[in-house]
Amino acid sequence: MRQLICVGLVSLVTACATSRSAQVTSAGTGAEQGRAFSEAAVTVMQAYDLESRYEEAVALGQFAGERARLLKDEGGEARILAQQGRVMSRMLRHRPGMETAQVLEVLHRARRLADASGDASARVAARNSEAIFHYSIVLLTGQGEWATVVALLEQARDLAVSSGDSRGHLDALFYLGLTQQFQGNAEAARSTYEHGLSLARAAKDVLMESYNLRHLASLAEDRGELDSAITLYEQSLRLREQVGFTTGQMFALTALANVRARKDPKDAQALVLSEKSLTLARAVKDPAGEREARTSLGRLLLRRGEVAAAVPHLEQALSNSETHEDWWSAVEALLELGRAHSLRGEKVLVGERLRQARTVASSRRLQEALVLVEKVEHELGAAP
């Protein structure tokens, strides 16, 4: 990934220099060089994103967007803004201080420019990025509607198919699968992921292959097919390591750790995987990855009966989740803390943690989280 960034930056500098000279020659040549510049900028921003270098991606987007505007390259500016908005959407969960209004402003401008330019790839990118923003908001806060997400993704998918935009098509398909999965339609999601996996392999798109494998693994785990889930998670992790997808590696490691521990609570490798995820998250200063890893470590330690070691990880995960307003993760941490208190025989504290979890899930309209709360309430004999 570092090599890709270096090559991309060289291409960006070259494209910037040649586009300046091209402005003096012909309009046609200038347009070609403008596109080369915007494509190089988007490539580097995507690479930064995969390494969790979000601030650098956004800063480059701001510079490159201004440059594309000077070159009067509406399609290029739209693609840059779409990628910038996509990174900013991720920062809502991974970094403090980003406001949703800031992200929407960028995404709306990207879509307006894309539509005005008639650039098919820009129109696809703008719709996919805006859909991802709304997907994140619905999933993490319970606000908004799935219908908005689906409509944008279906528009992006259809535009991508008609224009031959392979990555745009795969992007839209994957997020359509996610909306199906999180709305409880597992079979539809499975079909969508399998279709996306087939297309990704045909296109030799390793990153999108890893996404689809990871979520097919999740569905297999939900069905109780643990050996199949482990195999799929391992395949996804290897691909993410291959392309240097740092953020994806963190979550793949914790997912693999959790399913291995579910199969065997004493699996020592599961702890190693979660600890590796935590080390990686702390190295890149990614709070979302850190809270995910700490929740995983707490859960695994509880299954091993090591309550004293588990509780600090879970309390830090809860504090992190509340600070960054990741309410789904807060519910998960609260439920694991409820289990910890149960193992200690602290019935009053069990009830307190479960009430907190129910309040968060209900107030944030996190229906899937509420189902999980009810399951743990039944498990611990602490129904409201």
TrEMBL record:
Compartments reported by the entry: Cytoplasm
UniProt keyword Cytoplasm present: yes
SMART domains per record: TPR
Range of residues in the leader sequence: 1-22
Highest taxon above the source species: Bacteria
InterPro entries registered for this protein in UniProt: Bac_ResReg_Asp_Phosphatase, TPR-like_helical_dom_sf, TPR_rpt
Sorted UniProt keywords: Cytoplasm, Repeat, Signal, TPR repeat
Pfam families: TPR_6, TPR_7
Family: Belongs to the Rap family.
Cited PANTHER family: TETRATRICOPEPTIDE REPEAT PROTEIN 29
Protein name according to UniProt: Tetratricopeptide repeat protein
Source organism per UniProt: Myxococcus landrumensis
